[in-house]
């Protein structure tokens, strides 16, 4: 019978295995103690973590192993040699050998503990141990929400915001019949057509019907006389380049049949809104707006064209604008001359019901509160967009310039009676508004250079209220 003879195991290898098993047992024992102390103690104590658990070998232990390989003889000298295990069951270690081995292991752990880097003190919260599952469902913190009762919901509801009887101009959800029944301002007939060959939009104002009679000045009753309506056309947001039909005298069913073209690219026309405003002409006061119609051009087929009857709705602008005036100012300090150029005006208020207006401009120099000089342009017949290009010069010394004011008044020429007032502005010491003050300031800062600017005309009452120089002229 053949016996297999086993070679005796290396004592150094068994020593390393025993050291490793003892270290793992020590790590497990320490972590168990940490867990028990953190879970059982009511106060939060600081516990020292001895190392990662489980699995990974600490860096300081790896350094210890490398040092063992370099100096195996040193370690074996301090150790008690372990008797290799044989197949004989009668082989046992004595009690003295066991005590020596335990003493050697204790010294071994002490030496490793001295070489291990100090671990930081970490405040450990209670640790939850459990089986790692494949799916982890994130738990979101519950948010306390206020529960609303039906009473709270309807208490926040504001019925007036959704009422059709509100004062707002939002009538998008009303039909033309409902608008006509609600406001009773009449209807307007018009058409649009875009010419791709010539790149212009044609607006045709055809007629209107059922216009309301004019209101008397005291507002207590309606005048029985008929209106004198006309229509202003513009493409929003540009309200400056507007068109205007002729005035139809004493009728509530005017027939206009007038066409107007706007030079505008097709893509730009689709971004505009067509605004048609029906105005009542009044020779003795400012013209009154009857109603308006607005049509976004992106909602219609401009190339195909079409015509519509639209009900008029109230306008927030109760009075029409008086027109605009283009002026140029220039001061020569060496000569002491203030030069004024009246270039042109546009969209002036119509003063004659039959042939438009015969406008002219009066220029008056006021020094302080004293009228010094008056000049005026020629009048142009039958137009509300006159071109003057006339120059005037006033003698103003430089030391008196800061006390000077220029009053520009636009009139409609009338051969049978007094001229019809259209509008006024004041530029200078007593300017009638911010735009006029800015023009005067720019002229003072740029001597010998002409400064041009458009100005919106104001009423006589508005100028008299803000400018003392307006009170000194007629």
From TrEMBL:
Keywords, ordered alphabetically: Differentiation, Membrane, Repeat
> Which locations, inside or outside the cell, does it occupy?
Membrane
Q: Where is the signal peptide?
A: none
Q: Which GO terms describe its molecular function?
A: calcium ion binding; calcium-dependent phospholipid binding; clathrin binding; phosphatidylserine binding; SNARE binding
Tell me which Gene3D superfamilies the record gives: C2 domain (2.60.40.150)
- SUPFAM superfamilies attached to this UniProt entry: C2 domain (Calcium/lipid-binding domain, CaLB)
One example of a Gene Ontology biological process annotation:
cell differentiation
Which parts of the sequence are annotated with region: Disordered?
A: 60-102
Ranges where the C2 domain occurs? 184-310, 321-455
Sorted alphabetically, the Gene Ontology cellular component annotations on this record are: exocytic vesicle; glutamatergic synapse; plasma membrane; postsynapse; trans-Golgi network
How does the UniProt record describe the way this protein sits in the membrane?
Peripheral membrane protein
Q: Say if the entry is tagged with keyword Methyltransferase.
A: no
Q: Which SMART domains match?
A: C2
UniProt cross-references to InterPro entries, sorted A to Z: C2_dom, C2_domain_sf, Synaptotagmin, Synaptotagmin-15/17_C2A, Syt17_C2B
List the Pfam families.
C2
UniProt superkingdom: Eukaryota
Name the job this protein performs: Plays a role in dendrite formation by melanocytes.
Q: Which family does it belong to?
A: Belongs to the synaptotagmin family.
Supply the name of the protein.
Answer: Synaptotagmin-17
Q: Which organism is it from?
A: Panthera leo (Lion)
Q: Which gene encodes it?
A: SYT17
């Amino acid at each position: 019978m053949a016996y297999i003879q086993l070679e005796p195991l290396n004592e150094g290898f068994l020593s390393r295995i025993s050291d490793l098993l003892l270290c793992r047992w020590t790590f497990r024992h320490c972590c168990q103690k940490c867990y028990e102390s953190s879970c059982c103690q009511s106060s939060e104590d600081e516990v020292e973590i001895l190392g990662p658990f489980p699995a990974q070998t600490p860096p300081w232990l790896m350094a210890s192993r490398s040092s063992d390989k370099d100096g195996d003889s040193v370690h074996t000298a301090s150790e008690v040699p372990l008797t290799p295990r044989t197949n004989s069951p009668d082989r046992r270690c004595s009690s003295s050998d066991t005590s020596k081995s335990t003493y050697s292991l204790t010294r071994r752990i002490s030496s490793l503990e001295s070489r291990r880097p100090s671990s930081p003190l970490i405040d450990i919260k209670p640790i939850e141990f459990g089986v790692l599952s494949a799916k982890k469902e994130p738990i979101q913190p519950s948010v306390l929400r206020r529960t609303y009762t039906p009473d709270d919901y309807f208490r926040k509801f504001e019925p007036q915001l959704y009422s059709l009887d509100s004062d707002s101009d939002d009538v998008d959800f009303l039909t033309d019949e409902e608008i006509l029944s609600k406001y009773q301002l009449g209807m307007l007939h018009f058409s649009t057509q875009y010419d791709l060959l010539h790149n212009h939009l044609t607006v045709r104002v055809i007629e209107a019907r059922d216009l309301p009679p004019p209101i008397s000045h005291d507002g207590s009753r309606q005048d029985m006389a008929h209106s004198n309506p006309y229509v202003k056309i513009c493409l929003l947001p540009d309200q400056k380049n507007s068109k205007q039909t002729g005035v139809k005298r004493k009728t509530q069913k005017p027939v206009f049949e007038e066409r107007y073209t706007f030079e505008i690219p097709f893509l730009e026309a689709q971004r505009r809104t067509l605004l048609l405003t029906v105005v009542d002409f009044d020779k003795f006061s400012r013209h009154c707006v009857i109603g308006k119609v607005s049509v976004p051009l992106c909602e219609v087929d401009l190339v195909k064209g079409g015509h519509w009857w639209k009900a008029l709705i109230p306008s927030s602008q109760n009075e029409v604008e008086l027109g605009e005036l283009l002026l140029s100012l220039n001061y020569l300090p060496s000569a002491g001359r203030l030069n004024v150029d009246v270039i042109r005006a546009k969209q002036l208020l119509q003063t004659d019901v039959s042939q438009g207006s015969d406008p002219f401009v009066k220029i008056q120099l006021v020094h302080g509160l004293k009228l010094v000089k008056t000049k005026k342009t020629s009048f142009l017949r039958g137009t509300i967009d006159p071109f003057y290009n006339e120059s005037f010069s006033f003698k103003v010394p430089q030391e008196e310039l800061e006390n000077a004011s220029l009053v520009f008044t636009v009139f409609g020429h009338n051969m049978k009676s007094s001229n019809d007032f259209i509008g006024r502005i004041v530029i200078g010491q007593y300017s009638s508004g911010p735009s006029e003050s800015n023009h005067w300031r720019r002229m003072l800062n740029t001597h010998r250079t002409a400064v041009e600017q458009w100005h919106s005309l104001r009423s006589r009452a508005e100028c008299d209220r803000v400018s003392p120089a307006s009170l000194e002229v007629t």
